[in-house]
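Q: Given only this backbone (558 positions), what sequence would you predict?
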């Protein structure tokens, strides 16, 4: 092999920088099949890298290779083997050097809970060091108080959730974070409890604390810490010991079985009052109604509005309104619980746009004295994979808190929920598709354990997942108004409109109630701007302008 390899010539007179040294090493290494002579041929640039960064010669060579290919994103053993011109199995002998580079934070190991393959990425600090020809400096995170400490803990947990660090690295970083700041009051308190805890218990405790502090979760379900452990046997063992009540987190008074969780939901835990009121007292985590009610609409602020329905819709809405009257609702729920049924009510209002679905929810809330917690669908979906699932869980967590603290349970409204209740995708590979399915699974689970009232509105039901269809107890279809209803809406919306004109408008234009309201609003604006009463001709003009597609009007007669 030695005789066949012709190394690239390098300029030993060039003034070296980290970047030029890396380039020279790569010129020699490429297709060398890792010939031992590379240390002789590239001795000068290898020595420069090793001395500059306090690395061994072999580490310096591996450093040069990963810095050369870092722009490709994830770096694998196969990538390094390809650069050296050797088989991947032979490149595995450099695992020791890769681990050393990780320890020095030149590299960050990526992990995937479904895979044992090691992949790496170059740290930002390593890239900066290469570009500026300086020793690598890891910026020290300044922690002055408990908020800073938990902010750093959240960064570590997020790195684990996103597969950027493995379980061992997580243990090391959290352990270092605890040890370095062990004199902080809350960590001194933790010290009195940790003697009986295993490493797995400690990691689970801090994972749970992070869910409560940084993600505003009230309870810690077993499924929420599945991403913590790489070894699923450890996860199952922890879950089993918690369920059996033998886990030391329970025995030491750090965790307890969730007090307010639905009895049908297994493996649901929470931080004990000792943790909340003593260890984490500085964080003031007690969630008040005011805090969770920022997206709450008071029923007192809902304006009464006359609604027009066809007979079937009218009957369904009257029945639902009667059910949601506080005294009646409490009676029905108590009877359901007694018989072992779920006590929450999930309803869906579906139909064409503008048929009064959302307004009906408002009027039901007003009539039953219930506030509305309205969910903004666009705010749920985060650009970061994993964040959307957290957003969904936080919504239901806030809603449960409101139900607990409210004398009359509010309504949780998912308006225009088409994007959340569609058919789940099969055989997904993209992270975004996995996230969509995960969000839907969370919503399905939350509806199962619902202890309140959820109403979703949607324009589309043809794409609804069957699992959602089963979970909605009341399904109300909103059709376009009948001729009689349209006439009544026209007369109620346009002041002074007579029966004949209302019938003519209802006959010519197949409008929904929402479209008629649009025209009425434009008419009011015209009256304000011109100071004149609306003419019938102007009213027809507004009607014609309402359509983007001119073919949607109804011809009279034929």
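A: Predicted residues:
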């Amino acid at each position: 092999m030695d005789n066949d390899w012709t190394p690239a010539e390098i300029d030993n007179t060039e003034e070296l920088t980290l970047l030029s040294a890396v380039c020279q090493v790569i010129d020699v290494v490429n297709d060398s099949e890792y010939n031992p002579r590379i240390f002789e041929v590239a001795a000068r640039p290898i020595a420069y890298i090793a001395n500059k960064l306090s690395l061994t010669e072999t580490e310096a060579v591996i450093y040069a290779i990963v810095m050369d290919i870092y722009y490709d994103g994830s770096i694998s053993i196969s990538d390094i083997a390809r650069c050296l011109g050797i088989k991947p199995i032979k490149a595995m002998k450099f695992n020791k050097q890769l681990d050393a580079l990780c320890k020095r934070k030149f590299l960050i190991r990526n992990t995937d809970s479904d895979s044992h393959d090691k992949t790496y990425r170059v740290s930002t600090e390593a890239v900066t060091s290469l570009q500026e020809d300086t020793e690598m400096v890891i910026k020290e995170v300044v922690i002055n108080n408990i908020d800073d400490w938990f902010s750093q803990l959240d960064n570590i947990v997020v790195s684990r959730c996103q597969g950027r660090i493995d379980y061992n690295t997580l243990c090391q970083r959290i352990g270092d974070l605890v040890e370095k700041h062990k004199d902080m009051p809350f960590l001194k308190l933790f010290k009195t409890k940790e003697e009986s805890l295993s490493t797995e218990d400690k990691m689970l405790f801090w994972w749970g604390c992070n869910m409560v502090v940084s993600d505003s979760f009230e309870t810690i379900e077993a499924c929420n810490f599945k991403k913590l452990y790489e070894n699923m046997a450890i996860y199952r063992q922890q879950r089993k010991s918690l369920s059996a009540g033998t886990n030391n987190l329970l025995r030491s008074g750090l965790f307890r079985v969730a007090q307010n969780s639905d009895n049908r939901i297994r493996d649901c835990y929470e931080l004990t009052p000792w943790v909340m009121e003593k260890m984490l007292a500085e964080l003031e985590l007690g969630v008040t109604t005011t805090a969770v009610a920022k997206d709450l609409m008071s029923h007192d602020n809902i304006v009464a509005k006359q609604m027009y329905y066809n007979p079937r819709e009218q009957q369904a809405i009257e029945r639902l309104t009667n059910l949601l009257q506080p005294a009646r609702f409490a009676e029905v729920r108590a009877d359901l619980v007694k018989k072992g049924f779920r006590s929450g009510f999930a309803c869906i209002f579906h139909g064409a746009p503008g048929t009064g679905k959302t307004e009906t929810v408002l009027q039901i809330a007003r009539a039953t004295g219930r506030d509305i917690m309205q969910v903004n669908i666009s705010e749920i979906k985060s650009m970061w994979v994993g964040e959307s699932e957290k957003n969904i869980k936080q919504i239901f967590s806030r809603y449960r808190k409101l139900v607990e603290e409210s004398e009359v349970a509010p309504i949780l409204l998912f308006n225009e929920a088409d994007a959340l209740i569609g058919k789940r995708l099969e055989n997904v590979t993209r992270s975004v598709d996995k996230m969509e399915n995960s969000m839907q699974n969370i919503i399905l689970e939350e509806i199962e354990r619902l202890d309140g009232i959820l109403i979703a509105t949607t324009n589309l039901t043809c794409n609804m997942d069957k699992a959602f269809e089963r979970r909605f107890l009341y399904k109300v279809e909103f059709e376009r108004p009948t001729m009689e209803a349209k006439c009544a809406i026209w007369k109620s919306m346009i002041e002074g409109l007579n029966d004949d004109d209302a019938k003519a408008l209802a006959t010519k234009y197949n409008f929904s109630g929402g479209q008629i309201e649009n025209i009425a609003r434009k008419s009011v604006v015209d009256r304000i701007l011109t100071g004149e009463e609306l003419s019938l001709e102007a009213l027809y003009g507004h009607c014609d302008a309402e359509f983007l597609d001119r073919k949607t009007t109804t011809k009279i007669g034929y």
